[in-house]
Amino acid sequence: MQECMEALSACMQACIMCADADAAEGMGRCASMCANCADMCDTMMRMMLRMRGWDMGVMMSMMQSTTMMARACSAECMMHAEMSEHCRMCAMACDQLVMAMEKMMGTMSEAMPMA
């Protein structure tokens, strides 16, 4: 779980920085994607910290949604990565998050199979 939390935090920070820079550069779609991804990372981290309130179905659904958002953000940022260092860094953070989330979801599925 620690690896996943660190990846969520790193992704959230990269997305916030990228969204701010994108907005200044007039890249509205990328800025919005990054802001949405940052929000989902923040929400996911807060959910993970409330361990007594976990519902496996809800948690897996949220993790899948966060993973999908990170993939979409990475794809958007990769379109600008050659000309924008902040987009390249954001895409990398999103990709790292996807890997960490997929690893954790796999571990959770093995440890607590859903009925």
From TrEMBL:
InterPro entries hit by this protein: Csp_YhjQ (IPR005560)
Name assigned to this protein: Aldehyde dehydrogenase
Species assigned in the record: Agromyces salentinus
